[in-house]
Please model this.
Amino acid sequence: MPRVKVNGVDIYYKFNGDGEKILVILNGIMMSSESWGGLVPSYVRAGYKVLNVDFRDQGKSESSKDAYTITQHVEDLRGLLQHLKIEKINLLGISYGGQVSMLFALKYPHMLESLILANTMARLTNYLKSIGEAWDEAAKLKDGEKFFRLAMPLIYSDTFYEKNLQWLKDREELFSSILTPEWFERYLRLSSSHGDYDIVDKLSNIQVPTLLISSDKDLITPYRELFMIHERIRDSKLVVIPEAGHASCYEKMEEFILVVLGFLALSTNE
Amino acid sequence: MPRVKVNGVDIYYKFNGDGEKILVILNGIMMSSESWGGLVPSYVRAGYKVLNVDFRDQGKSESSKDAYTITQHVEDLRGLLQHLKIEKINLLGISYGGQVSMLFALKYPHMLESLILANTMARLTNYLKSIGEAWDEAAKLKDGEKFFRLAMPLIYSDTFYEKNLQWLKDREELFSSILTPEWFERYLRLSSSHGDYDIVDKLSNIQVPTLLISSDKDLITPYRELFMIHERIRDSKLVVIPEAGHASCYEKMEEFILVVLGFLALSTNE
Amino acid sequence: MPRVKVNGVDIYYKFNGDGEKILVILNGIMMSSESWGGLVPSYVRAGYKVLNVDFRDQGKSESSKDAYTITQHVEDLRGLLQHLKIEKINLLGISYGGQVSMLFALKYPHMLESLILANTMARLTNYLKSIGEAWDEAAKLKDGEKFFRLAMPLIYSDTFYEKNLQWLKDREELFSSILTPEWFERYLRLSSSHGDYDIVDKLSNIQVPTLLISSDKDLITPYRELFMIHERIRDSKLVVIPEAGHASCYEKMEEFILVVLGFLALSTNE
Amino acid sequence: MPRVKVNGVDIYYKFNGDGEKILVILNGIMMSSESWGGLVPSYVRAGYKVLNVDFRDQGKSESSKDAYTITQHVEDLRGLLQHLKIEKINLLGISYGGQVSMLFALKYPHMLESLILANTMARLTNYLKSIGEAWDEAAKLKDGEKFFRLAMPLIYSDTFYEKNLQWLKDREELFSSILTPEWFERYLRLSSSHGDYDIVDKLSNIQVPTLLISSDKDLITPYRELFMIHERIRDSKLVVIPEAGHASCYEKMEEFILVVLGFLALSTNE
Model:
């Protein structure tokens, strides 16, 4: 299992493909490198070397001994890339991973070829904070099944519930078996890393070609928040995946793959 | 405290005003007669005698010894009205109370002058059931503060969270002091009363003048569901309260009062 | 025919009802006093004395000899009210009439008890100007049937077209017989009166109780514009009539009547 | 100028690029091969041989002597492809061109590798017919400037008007110089070719991989119509370009290019 000690913590990473160009993928807060199994092959076939990373306290990365803020992941990623002697990346981040991606773009702009931000936000509204508090309460129960039941209705769209109930039930079972007490402790540390996150005023400093992916039924990071980012990052394109909630990469996996491939093709193409 | 034994259970009711026409108000599942304090005076001033009722297992009504389905409330209301010698009512129901109101309209149409349905549904979608399950999990914790935190983000709109955070914090504290273990037991019985509720195909039998109130950010009973009811009840009018979630009567109290007053005026007027 | 010379032009007006409170109605640019036949009786029955007015160059009012800006109508209304010895009014304006109503509210606030603004705007966007230019081109053809065909798809919603095609066809015929060459000349003068209309920054000076009526499929004065007004007039309420375009008072007449009645009841009520 | 006589009419076509895979592009009713100048290079760079075609009565194709229905273009395209000895194509059609593309997919499914449908419809609603009638009236004036003013507000979004007024003004001038009386006669024949176009019930027979592109402010072929197609073509993906009207390929050219490239990459990829 490839892990490397960065800033005192073992960070897990995994390569797929052997293209020249590199696509780094950063996870949403409840996800891990394994969550991307359905999407990575498409990016590999399109000629990319895909680098999945688990944040500290996530997936197969080590737990953090200390408290940290979200910017810690920026330094962890930077350290990992230095170790791997990678100087230039395309960076895709979803939700929490999108927040980290924007912070990385602001701190290390010269390392980016392009930026892909899906279902993410540049600030914490009261509403987002209240959702965070709800999930923290749910996590404190340290019960995967209950956590799933309490958190999912905000994540998946009603459309998805109508058409894929069995998939969701299976996933509930999966959560129930996978989410250990330790998982919840790690989750709660990740969740508390947001601090007073608000980078709206800094977004105009991001000058790398950027793709923004929104979905029309995303309650957590609604279209309005993605549009706000779009208006501030000059070289950004905004595309909407319809009939999908916050989990667009699961709910509409092919559409998600498609818009990312299109953006990468366009970037290469020009 | 005015209570009357109906179908074996003491049902609480309260009159306000002394108009000739009667407006009966049925609560949402987490509400009680007291929830309407801000709205009742307006309807009284408009000349109505307002009758608030708490369902069995709700507010000041007695707990139910036995399990029951939602249709039980129809018979309880009917029994109460017989006891009070009331033959004709205008019936306003919100959410769960709206479900009961439609069932009442189907069973006792001759007792209705008009029907007002706010933020309600004629069927349980998978998504609604999953929200119900989430709230059941939350209720089982029997902790008002946690229940509030877990359930509210689906009920109040993000707009309301941005503008009224303090009100919500105060309310969280209120819930925390008011919601006793017994409250949660009663809630869970009410919640389990839905059964296979689906009256879509029967709606066309409702022929009384009907007002439908929807709000644009209602995640629980979205516009689509209200529109579905509107298309099936011939003599229905549909109005939307914008920038509001499921709790439209709290989030936009004056707009809520206004459309109800307008509908009542129109009915009387013609 | 009751007309009175105001500012050099005979202004037509008509009373209905004999209530104490007065409701003045100002027309959209293509409308006249006669357009309100279906709505006035409801307001009369609710106890209002309704005063319909035709702007100069509109309906049965005289044509203007000179060019004028939209503020002229404010002075014309003020002059008419002085003549009629009316000191206090409730003012309902739709679209162009809504623009005049806001200007009136800014100039003569002491004469207002309440303000009702339907499907209107506080500024001219490029898009609105381009629609104005399209209609001007259409008007220059001086052919009622062609004018109707060219202008209506922007005014009525697609929903209305699906459900009320015959009504629209009948109306096309009516336009074709009623719209004389003189009507188009008058229309073009009204249309050119907008100037650089933009009162967004002054809206916060309006302090009278205000109702804003929007409809969800209004292409000409979309929800966004009504919401902008709502945010700036402190004591304003905003209600949406769904499945309707710019012509909400025709497309959903009963809902339109209802929300106005509700607002008037609420104002009186408090 | 490459033209070939097909079904009695000279059809203009133009190749760009020399990839193995072929992308045929079919125009909207007011467009021509030249309209795609900004998009074709991207598809060429992505390895496609792009074949632009002008329908009879469009661009550099010959005028039709006889009346015809929209299915005529299907046979014209088929004839052209036979002449060019092309057996398999990827077919991209926008609006009217999208209608032809779906008809082609139903008639000659074996010739398609994939189908891309942008801002199009599978039926004519009353509203669409009324827009068609409005444009016919405008076309009968045979004046490019007037036609532009009368037709464009339905085609471009209000967003686009706010941000690109000068571009629109330049385009108005262009139309005014280019649109000859003959252009309008040809337009009117194209416009009258729709007949009773309604292929909703046949859509489920389309089994080729399909991309549907919608835009959120398209008044002519609104999202609802694209979604209706999406629900009936099993192997279809639906993506929305936000803040754009019917002319999505002009209003948001890069986003349009991107989603098409992504779909082509995905198709090749799998």
